[in-house]
Amino acid sequence: MAQTLTLALGFLSAVQALPTWSNAVVKRGAADVSQEYDYIDGKKTVLVIEYGPLSQDDSFMPLYNVPAAQFLYNLTSVPQVNVNNRTFPVANGAVVGGGSAVNGQFFDRGSAEDYNNWAKFSGNSGWDWKGLYPYFKKSSALAPPTTAMQKWGITWDSSAYSSAGPVVGAYPDYQWATQKTSWNAWVEKGNVPIQKEHADGHAYGVFWIPTAMDPARAYNRSFAGLSHYIKVQPRKNYHLLTLHRVTKVNFVKKNGKQQAVSVDVKERYGESTFKVKAKREIILSAAATRTPVLLQYSGIGPKKVLAAANVTTLIDLPGVGANLQDHSFALSLYNFTTDNSFPKPTTIATNATYKAEALELFKKTNGGPYTAVVTVSGAFLPPSTFTGDEFDALVKEIKNQKPKAYLPADTPKEIIKGYARQKEILLASFKSKTNAWLEHPFTGKGWGMCILLKPFSRGSIKINPADPLGDPIFDYRLFSNPLDLKMHIRMQTYIRKHFLESKAFKNLTVVEQDPAPGAVTDDAGWEDWLLNQNKLFASNGHSVGTAAMMPRDEGGVVDNQLRVYGTTGLSIADCSIIPLMPGTHTQTTAYAIGEKAADLIKARNR
């Protein structure tokens, strides 16, 4: 820690000697690291300001090597009134590379329909699947499975990826024997598409999912901080300032708009502050959890929120901090009582000798059972597949629900108008067979993980009136729309039937573990299990939407060029611009946003 801080302080003296950059980039997420790599053309200077440290440790592996506290923000939501006033952690990476350095390594994309829905808000200006697909490909490469891994029946299509993309997806070298059984349970259904490759726009049905890991680096994590930074580090026009926080963007009024001209910067572990000027453009990429807070403190946001914090309103933009969406989930458990395979998923937990051997193997080779922690298969299902007899009733409820019915009483008219459009698109998506709403990742374990991919509830992020520079007021507003609870009940009902009634599982004699056998017999029982037994979780670390790319009169914050409304020289390149939550983990989508942002920004700064 001391060494890292010393390096940052040494760099700070250089910063003070060169106080003006062509562009200043406020960086805490995955998207803009991608943007930086393409953005630097050798002619314009770039400064990246990062709250976290620079760590080129690529060995972060979920459940084994948990990232240190210095690589994460310590944020907590406000009590969620619809879930017994529980609070939930807010996942947010604080390191060069952002969430890509600390996440679960899912290397998946949404369906074409997910991104085509975005284009309905952006004027179809290259933000549909056709426009984004080249950026998905450019940002990533795929390492095919080894010959040994191909015995599991892994399918893929290398043409959906670049041959030289900076971030690499691959397949772990280990699978549990029961993974074949899990796959057979999906194949037998007949009404669920089995996709050869999902990354070409077909992310619905069941498919194999790469993991963000690089065989060329001993199957260690592949993430933005490594894959991009090591390529731009030698460039003389590129500067990275770590362990500093941007607290405010400063503006001057010019031609009727607010022109962004500089940022205020503060040491993370000290009190020193200074100002950095930008000649051309300031790009915010502080993630959906931080970008809106920075905008609000800078005077851009809902006037009422800013006034409460004694912040002078420069631009009354109601959408800043609104439209928060995330992937809530719950995990039920099932016991394979007659699974005679060895080792099995439970062996690490029950056999200390085997656990020690497996851990030592992982430390030496990055192989073996510990790599099976990362999910490599998933079912991504449309509502028509899992809602059963309730499908028509749910469609009717979505149609009849008034847009403002479950939004806060003081919601501005712009937000209501925008949500009304979202509801129209969500209804069409709900009825579609090519757009996923339920994600069930599986690795051969008896885990009934169900993730709601398309929530109806909308949360918010606001600066704290009592401490505007402190932690924000983060409110998921979980289950504020009752449709989300109904969807979770339908998902768990479906997955229980999947485990207990699929022919493929018959020889494993599956028994419920959580909830216990007979404990849940109807919807009311599932509701009690979800809410009163604390089985529901608010977030998968996929927060989006808080500075949405939508029309301004519909609660939008940026236009289709990523420029903040009412400003010049200020743009956003992170997941806060996403208007509607896609049916996927957000890592590769962040990379695609960054690559497209690079082209947009370069084009207007030639």
Defining key terms:
GMC_OxRtase_C, FAD/NAD-bd_sf, 606 residues, 8-stranded mixed β-sheet, flavoprotein, FAD, alpha/beta, signal
Q: How is this structure best described in words?
A:
It is a single chain. By secondary structure, this protein is of the alpha/beta class. It is built from 17 helices and 25 strands. The chain is globular, with a radius of gyration of 24 Å. 53% of the residues are buried. It comes from Lentithecium fluviatile CBS 122367. GO terms for molecular function: flavin adenine dinucleotide binding; oxidoreductase activity, acting on CH-OH group of donors. Its cofactor is FAD. Residues 455-594 form the Glucose-methanol-choline oxidoreductase C-terminal domain.
List the helices and strands and how they pair.
Layout: H1 2-17, E1 20-27, H2 31-39, E2 46-50, E3 75-76, E4 89-90, H3 112-122, H4 129-139, E5 140-142, E6 167-169, H5 178-187, E7 205-208, E8 213-214, E9 220-221, H6 224-227, H7 229-232, E10 238-241, E11 244-254, E12 257-267, E13 273-285, H8 291-297, E14 300-301, H9 303-308, E15 315-316, E16 329-336, H10 347-350, H11 352-365, E17 377-381, H12 383-386, H13 391-400, H14 413-431, E18 438-442, E19 447-452, E20 460-462, E21 473-475, H15 482-501, E22 510-514, H16 523-531, E23 536-537, E24 567-568, E25 570-572, H17 587-603
Parallel strand pairs: 1-2, 1-13, 2-10, 5-6, 12-24, 13-25, 14-15
Antiparallel strand pairs: 3-4, 7-17, 8-9, 11-12, 12-13, 16-19, 16-22, 16-23, 17-18, 18-19, 20-21
